[in-house]
Specification:
By secondary structure, this protein is an alpha/beta fold. The chain contains nine helices and eight strands. Helix 6 links the parallel strand 5 and strand 6. The chain binds zinc ion.
């Protein structure tokens, strides 16, 4: 009897060890998941890709509006009936409000990319708040909408950024890690095309720049090839908020790649 009791005790001990191990494992992974859906409307706090179940792509353009390139990009998007998201800098939105109004009128989403492109990891919470809210207010004063998506410059964020952005019912949006062509550095039209098309997958968030500090933009040239190709492949271009909503509905939002 003692032998059997001993065996039972060993089994019980082992079971307890396994249960403790499982609880610790679940506890360690759970906060990330919870964190991603932490704001009031259960809107995702951090997003870097969308649902792989749908043939959707979010085209995103940072640093604008630019008086020439943004307009050329808008013309191209119109030609292919493609919707995109423009993460604008407050200082350029102020300078080119008519471009913001056109973006909204043509069904695109306007997101916030800070006022002056600061590195959010290197400034105080007070400055983060100012940079974020000033741009929210500028876009509101131009187009009567408050952006629902915020992309921190350089993809750099911390807890203060998440807290401040979430408190205005917005999401922090990054990009799918392999979808960064560094088009702002004019690497060549072919490089931009290849980066985008060679790895493209359902639910990708593609990072482009409509403001380029160069006398020409390789982004515009690349889009002339990328857009018809992706249309041919059957992709649908959605705004960031559409991608987030669809992916949340499917409960497959992958926040941290
Ligand atoms: Zn930027």
């Amino acid at each position: 009897m003692n032998g059997i009791r001993k065996d039972v005790n060993i089994i019980l001990d082992l079971t307890i060890v396994v249960i403790v191990f499982m609880v610790v494992t679940i506890y360690n992974t759970y906060p990330k998941t919870l964190y991603a859906f932490s704001n009031s409307n259960n809107r995702a706090a951090i997003v870097s890709r969308g649902s792989k179940e749908d043939k959707i792509i979010a085209l995103t353009f940072d640093d604008g509006p630019h008086p020439e390139y943004t307009v050329e990009i808008l013309d191209l998007l119109k030609q292919y009936n493609a919707k995109a998201t423009f993460f604008v800098l407050g200082k350029y939105a102020e300078t080119y409000p008519e471009i913001i109004r056109r973006q909204i009128a043509e069904g695109h989403e306007v997101g916030n990319h800070s006022y002056s492109h600061v590195n959010m990891k290197k400034v105080s919470a007070k400055v983060i708040k100012q940079e974020f809210e000033k741009t929210q207010d500028i876009v509101y004063s131009i187009a009567n909408i408050r952006p629902k998506v915020f992309r921190p410059p350089y993809g750099n964020y911390n807890d203060d950024v998440i807290k401040i952005v979430s408190s205005d019912d917005s999401s922090v949006v990054l990009w799918t890690f392999y979808q960064d062509s560094k088009d702002w550095s004019n690497p060549g039209v072919d490089v931009v095309i290849d980066t985008t098309l060679s790895k493209v997958q359902n639910g990708d968030i593609i990072l482009f720049h409509d403001y380029v500090y160069k006398p020409e933009s390789h982004t515009v040239g690349a889009l002339k090839v990328i857009l018809p190709k992706l249309v041919d492949e059957g992709y649908q271009f959605v705004t960031m908020s559409e991608l987030i909503n669809l992916s949340q509905d499917r409960k497959v939002l992958n926040n941290f790649n």
